[in-house]
Design brief:
single chain; mainly beta; 7-stranded mixed β-sheet; 4-stranded antiparallel β-sheet; 2 helices; about 10% helix; globular
Length: about 130
């Protein structure tokens, strides 16, 4: 079973940057993608970005495209989410997850069924002040 440890969240002013890290252990990620989801208070969890580690395919939600960049270091089994030009509406708990590749190719949808079939990290808080 894969274990995921996230780091890099924090408090930043609007326009600032943060880099989230997701370190995976316990399983090879060759057949999977690593995704980032976020959940703001009172809102449903949503897919933000994902990367397929075998072919470097990446997906970005429309709301973060051009501001966020996802990358992976396969040797370290670690994925990163570089977040630039942060906005107050980016405030949320960010969750790293290992997902089947087809979910990444399909735009990283979220549902209860998806939730139950994903390995999740513990979450890291990102707060963007205006």
């Amino acid at each position: 079973e894969v274990q995921l440890v996230e780091s890099g969240g924090g408090l930043v002013q609007a326009g600032g940057s943060l880099r989230l890290s997701c370190a995976a252990s316990g399983s090879t990620l060759d057949d999977y993608a690593i995704g980032w989801f976020r959940q703001a208070p009172g809102k449903e969890r949503e897919g933000v970005s994902c990367i397929s580690t075998s072919d470097d395919y990446t997906y970005y939600a429309h709301s973060v495209k051009g501001r966020f960049t996802m990358s992976s270091d396969n040797a370290k089994n670690t994925a990163y989410l570089q977040m630039n030009s942060l906005k107050p509406e980016d405030t949320a708990v960010y969750y790293c997850a290992v997902v089947l590749k087809f979910l990444c190719y399909s735009g990283l949808p979220y549902s209860q069924s998806v939730h139950e079939h994903i390995s999740w990290g513990q979450g890291t808080q990102v707060t963007v002040s205006s």
